[in-house]
Design brief:
The protein is built from twelve helices and no strands. The chain is mostly helical. About 80% of the residues lie in helices and about 0% in strands.
C-alpha cells in the first residue's frame, strides 16, 4: 500500500507539472509507465485520467473570481454568455472526435514510439513559433471571435495523439490565430475544464467497478498532489512564458523524446 501511495505521489507531480505546460502530460505519463514501471495495469491507466480532476480544480481555484462572474452573469451579460458559448464551441470538436475515434486512437497511437516522435516534432514547432514575428490582435481570452474559438477547438483535437500536448496545441493555435501569449495560455486553461472533466467522467464511469477503498485512497493522494502542483505551475508558467516564450519547453520536449528513442532502440 505504501508503494502505491508513493507511486501516486510521483504520478500526481508529473500530472500537475505537465498538464498545463506545452510538454504533454499524457506523453510523460506513458513514458513513466514504460521506463520506470509506474503505471502498469488497468487501474493505473485510469488513475492517470482520474487525477486530472485535481488539475481542473487548480484552474477553478486560481480563476475563481473571473469564472464566478462569468457563471453568474451568463444569463444577463451578453459578453459572459458569448464566452461560455465560445468555450462550448471550442470543446465540441474534441467531444465528437473523442467519442467516435477515441478507442482507435488509444489502440494504435498510445505507445512510446509515437510519444517520443511527437515530443520532438512538437518541440520543433514551439521553436518555430517563438521565431515568428506575430502581431497579436486579441489580448483577452474571453473576447476571441467565435470562429477563433472553433478553430482552436479543431486544433485541440490534434492533441489526442499522445505526446502532442493539449495545452501546447491550443496555445500555438490561438497565437497563430492572433492571440498574445498570455491570452492564448489562459484560454487553454479555460478550455481544459470541460475537456478534462469530460474525460474524467467517462473514465470514472468505465472504471468504477474496479475501485476499492485502497484504490480510492491512492486516487485521493494523486488528486491532492496534482492539485497543489498544478496551482504552482500555472501561476509560474503565465509569467515565464509572457516574458521568455517557449524555448525552454521546446528543448525539454526534444531532450525527453530523444532519450526515449535511444532507450527504445536499445530494447528498453
Amino acid at each position: 500500500m505504501l508503494a502505491d501511495i508513493l507511486r501516486a505521489v510521483i504520478l500526481g507531480v508529473i500530472e500537475g507539472v505537465t498538464e498545463f505546460l506545452p510538454v504533454s502530460s499524457t506523453g510523460h505519463l506513458l513514458l513513466a509507465e514504460r521506463f520506470f514501471d509506474l503505471g502498469e495495469g488497468s487501474f493505473w491507466k485510469s488513475f492517470a485520467v482520474l487525477i486530472q480532476l485535481g488539475a481542473i480544480l487548480a484552474i477553478l481555484a486560481l480563476y475563481f473570481t473571473k469564472l464566478s462572474k462569468i457563471a453568474l452573469g451568463m444569463f444577463s451579460d451578453p459578453a459572459a454568455r458569448r464566452f461560455v458559448i465560445g468555450v462550448l464551441v471550442a470543446f465540441l470538436p474534441a467531444a465528437v472526435i473523442g467519442a467516435t475515434a477515441g478507442s482507435y486512437i488509444k489502440a494504435y497511437l498510445f505507445n512510446p514510439w509515437v510519444v517520443c516522435f511527437t515530443l520532438i516534432l512538437g518541440g520543433g514547432i514551439l521553436l518555430w513559433v517563438d521565431q515568428l514575428k506575430l502581431q497579436p490582435v486579441h489580448h483577452e481570452a474571453t473576447e476571441f471571435p467565435l470562429r477563433t474559438y472553433l478553430a482552436i477547438g479543431f486544433v485541440q483535437c490534434i492533441a489526442m495523439i499522445p505526446g502532442v500536448s493539449r495545452s501546447g496545441a491550443t496555445i500555438v493555435g490561438a497565437m497563430l490565430l492572433g492571440a498574445d501569449r498570455r491570452a492564448a495560455a489562459e484560454f487553454s486553461f479555460f478550455l481544459a475544464i470541460p475537456t478534462m472533466l469530460g474525460a474524467f467522467v467517462y473514465d470514472l464511469y468505465k472504471s468504477h467497478g474496479e475501485m476499492t477503498m485502497d484504490h480510492g485512497l491512492v486516487v485521493a493522494v494523486g488528486f491532492v498532489v496534482s492539485f497543489i502542483t498544478a496551482i504552482i505551475v500555472v501561476k509560474t508558467f503565465l509569467t515565464y512564458v509572457t516574458r521568455h516564450g517557449f524555448t525552454l519547453f521546446a528543448w525539454w520536449r526534444v531532450l525527453v523524446g530523444t532519450l526515449g528513442l535511444i532507450a527504445l532502440a536499445f530494447g528498453r
